Amino acid sequence: MSEQVLIGIDAGTTTVKAAAYTMDGKQMAVARQPILVLRETEGTSEIDMDQMWEAVADCLRAIAGDIDPSAVAGIGVCGQGDGLWALDEDFQPVRPAILWNDARASAAVTQWAQDGTSDRISRYCRTANWPGTAGSTLRWVKDNEPENFARIKHIMFAKDWIVWKLTGQIGTDFSDATIPFLDLQAREYAPEVFAELGLPDMTDLLPPCHGAQTVAGPLVADLGLPNVPVARGTLDLAAMMTGVGLSATGDMCLILGTTAVLSYIVPPEPFDAPPLAATVHHPITCDWIRVLAPQTGASAFDWFAALHPISFGGADAGEIAAKINDAARDVPAGANGVLFLPFLTGERAPFVAPDAAGSFHGLRVSTTKADLARAVMEGTGYSLRHCLSASGAPAPERVVLTGGGARNPLWCQIVADILGVQILANASEDHGLWGAALLGGAAAGLCDPLDTPRDEAFDTYTPDHQAHASYSRHFETYLHAINANRTIWTAMRTPT
Fold this sequence. Notes:
Layout: E1 5-11, E2 15-22, E3 27-34, E4 46-47, H1 49-66, E5 72-79, E6 85-87, E7 97-98, H2 106-115, H3 117-125, H4 134-144, H5 146-151, E8 154-156, H6 158-167, E9 172-173, H7 174-177, E10 182-183, E11 188-189, H8 191-196, E12 209-210, E13 215-218, E14 229-231, E15 234-235, H9 236-243, E16 252-256, E17 260-266, E18 278-281, E19 288-292, H10 298-307, H11 317-329, E20 339-341, E21 359-361, H12 369-391, E22 398-402, H13 409-419, E23 422-425, H14 431-443, E24 459-461, H15 465-493
Parallel strand pairs: 1-5, 5-15, 9-12, 16-22, 22-23
Antiparallel strand pairs: 1-2, 2-3, 4-7, 6-8, 10-11, 13-14, 16-17, 17-19, 18-19, 20-21, 23-24
Helix pairs in contact: 9-14, 10-11, 10-12, 11-12, 12-13, 13-15
């Protein structure tokens, strides 16, 4: 008899992936498909929901062809959060999904921040509102697409759409359900949030909440796999934390992916003041996860590298990145006086500013490309430090870092020096997949997702105390630059 196999699915923003694992976490097969993000106008970010499902189905069929499908025992799903994934009465997409990074609701969000609406909402979901939340996007559809708004009968999230296609069952988990409609303290939807956003009470259109490891239903889609249990699934960052074994109060994780994410686990607590961060219910336990997710992460480095394919040289993106690192490695902390604000697509943490823009400061005739490259990496590090300091969380002795940026040793060391904490980095791309697979195993009654470690090596980056002291001074300049630029951002976005 073949060894039991778990399958994890990750419904991402630009790529969907699926992988098969042995029970001890060894990856047996993996498949991925790109997803086209629709950006028809400035600020628009959408995905064709049917295309995403077909991409997932193609991945699962490929997995089934690479393993003994009869050995599959459970399936779990994780996915991007927020946005609007709406179905009509026939369970068909009302329109393309509006994604978490869509900016069309920016004007409304700015107004809600000014008139106190966002603060009042945060009493329930403990989250600072931004344009890409389900509430903001839903209000945008009501105001701009009333016919589509009237057709909405089910409101869900990315992984819920995939689970529906896999099982025919509607539902969500507490992590995805949190923002912005869940009353975290009561663990139930709050009609008051709809009222604050100028929406009718639509709580009956929201999916019922379950633990992420509970059974959504058996697999019914024809994909060459047996009718095994499919877990309800969870938010991608929660799956990543599960995949790297972080589940205790105080555990902290940095994801240096396309965007950066700082997340840490806290116990439930009474409302004190409007938060600077997002909060999501832990997918399995009764704890919460504080999430500060700046808009820009590794995408800032990618943006900079794309500007310099000729000046730095290189046959492909990897070689260009390596040459940039070689140049930036000899630049001292502080990039010879150059400061980069990494707000290339606005900002949402630790402050919400849809109008924020990226910029270099301190350019002189002596400034080099290497200085600029170093400043870009430092700018992301400052953003993460800003998140950590604004969160009020005690600085841990060590932080687990994952995502594409973990493959860049120079960048990892810069982040360690800026934060002043030890970084344990692992660049594996499958932590979310493995975390999702563990949920599938739990749904099948085969494992405890909170206590199923796998053998992984982590690179350790210890902060240099001298560099940290220097970065602490530069970080103060970074904060001053943000405050000084606010009026500029407003002026540049104000119609003439």
